[in-house]
Amino acid sequence: MPIATVNPADGETLKTFDPLSDEEIEQRLADAAAAFRSYRTTTFEERARLLNSAADLLEREASGVARVITTEMGKTLAAAEAEAAKCVKAMRWYAENAEGLLAPEYPAADDIEDSGAVWARVRYRPLGPVLAVMPWNFPLWQVIRFAAPALMAGNVGLLKHASNVPQTALYLGDLFHRAGFAPGCFQTLLVSSGAIESVLRDPRVVAATLTGSEGAGRSVASVAGDEVKKTVLELGGSDPYLVMPSADLDAAARTAVTARVQNNGQSCIAAKRFIVHTDVYDAFAERFTAGMRALTVGDPMEPDTDVGPLASEQGRDDLEDLVTDALTQGAQAPCGGRRPEGFERGYYYEPTVLTGVTEQMRIHREEAFGPVASLYRVRDADEAIELANDTPFGLSSNVWTQDECEMDRFTQDLEAGGIYFNGMTASHPALPFGGVKRSGYGRELSGHGIREFCNTTTVWRA
């Protein structure tokens, strides 16, 4: 895939970039290793000052970088601006909280005595240069939620971003440089996916994190495993959205629309499978379908646009194939199910609701990465849980119920890294984020995330 900015609203190639040469990659690896030797000795106060400086820059430049994001991958301008603001918040949160999250831990006095020590403690120390392989769908946020904790922990970063967001990738590298981080602390590598293996195998790179497809995760994990290097993976999701009889149907349906089409439907944590109790199925389906049908598809730069184009022609075609497969096997589309009229240029697809989905259809198992929802009817909580878990993924989940007993049951039995009651999945710096099954392993954000790339060290003295 060429490294290029292609505007998904009209398919026009705006700018192309040459990949780094082998010599340039070698220099960046050397710079990262050198930077780590010095940066690891900085204080939390100094790291926080630098990260807050980067947050200040991003806050001032949010409007401009948001336009770049929208131009490169098609999310609405309002969504891009919100993404930038979220990044600023996360950077400031880690600047304020990292020292406490990584404070030394002291075992109980009785346990220290029993171990034969005069004293013992647990320290969290940085690992070194970490390779971050990041996707295009949240081109700022996915990077910052790695970079902020990694830099505060004393690590340095090497970013291999998606090839269709090169200007955003370059902005990120420049942002940390202008904030005052020493050269080599955070660098963007404009390289093809074929270069990832050699970078990851380099002994100066100590670990990797990847957000992306299951295939990309398998590839990186296999190389890292062969090299015995730590990885964190956040992969796909086919998140269930369960609606039970006690739910506030108006709020559930209204939120369901947003949960499905956020980021033009291109989000791993977007709700995709809507599993509704038969007692409220018809009422919910009517509200939800009406809400999806009312969305405005259009130019993502325009303020009245709800859903912009998909990020690429291939992504639009893949989504279209999933829907066509379902429709030819008997599913129905009470709204959508096709490319919108009047958009001969660009990679648009109508917000779509599918009913009558069966397990023989590809969309029942595969992630629909676009504004397409599958709607299911179930008899009770048992069937809802069985269907919700009938997926190779386990990223997040949403449940609408006012019944406390049902909440306990769903909390115990849903196979997901997150369970959100009476609301939609959202990430926050203070809450761990990640999945189970083929959605990956490890956690980002919170104290769990910052410790993923630390050497948890026992210090013991007799």
Write a structural description.
By secondary structure, the protein is of the alpha/beta class. It folds into two domains: 4-235 and 439-461, 3-Layer(aba) Sandwich (Aldehyde Dehydrogenase, Chain A, domain 1); 239-429, Aldehyde Dehydrogenase, Chain A, domain 2, CATH 3.40.309. Helix content is 42%, strand content 19%. The protein has 14 helices and 19 strands. Strands 11-12-13-10-9-15-16 form a seven-stranded mixed beta sheet, with helices on both faces. Strand 9 (239-243), helix 9 (249-261) and strand 10 form a beta-alpha-beta unit. Helix 2 (44-73) packs antiparallel against helix 3. It starts with a strand and ends with a strand. The model has no long low-confidence stretch (mean pLDDT 98).
Q: How many discrete domains?
A: 2
- Mind telling me the CATH superfamily name of the largest domain? Aldehyde Dehydrogenase, Chain A, domain 1
Rg for CA atoms = 23 Å
Strand residue content: 15-25%
Strand line-up across the major sheet: 11-12-13-10-9-15-16
The CATH C-level name of the largest domain is Alpha Beta
Query: Within the CATH hierarchy, at the fold level, what is the topology of the largest domain?
Result: Aldehyde Dehydrogenase, Chain A, domain 1
Q: In terms of per-residue confidence, which ranges show pLDDT below 50 for 5 or more consecutive residues?
A: none
Please summarize the sheet with the most strands: 7 strands, mixed
Structural class: alpha/beta
Overall spatial form: globular
Write down the overall mean pLDDT.
Answer: 98
- The CATH architecture term of the largest domain is 3-Layer(aba) Sandwich
How helical, in percent, are the residues? 40-55%
Q: Determine the N-to-C terminus distance.
A: 58 Å
Number of strands: 19
Q: Counting H and I runs of at least 4 residues, what is the number of helices?
A: 14
InterPro entries: Ald_DH/histidinol_DH, Ald_DH_C, Ald_DH_CS_CYS, Ald_DH_N, Aldehyde_DH_dom, ALDH_GabD1-like, GABD/Sad-like
Keywords: NADP, Oxidoreductase
Protein name: NADP-dependent succinic semialdehyde dehydrogenase
Domain Aldehyde dehydrogenase: 3-459
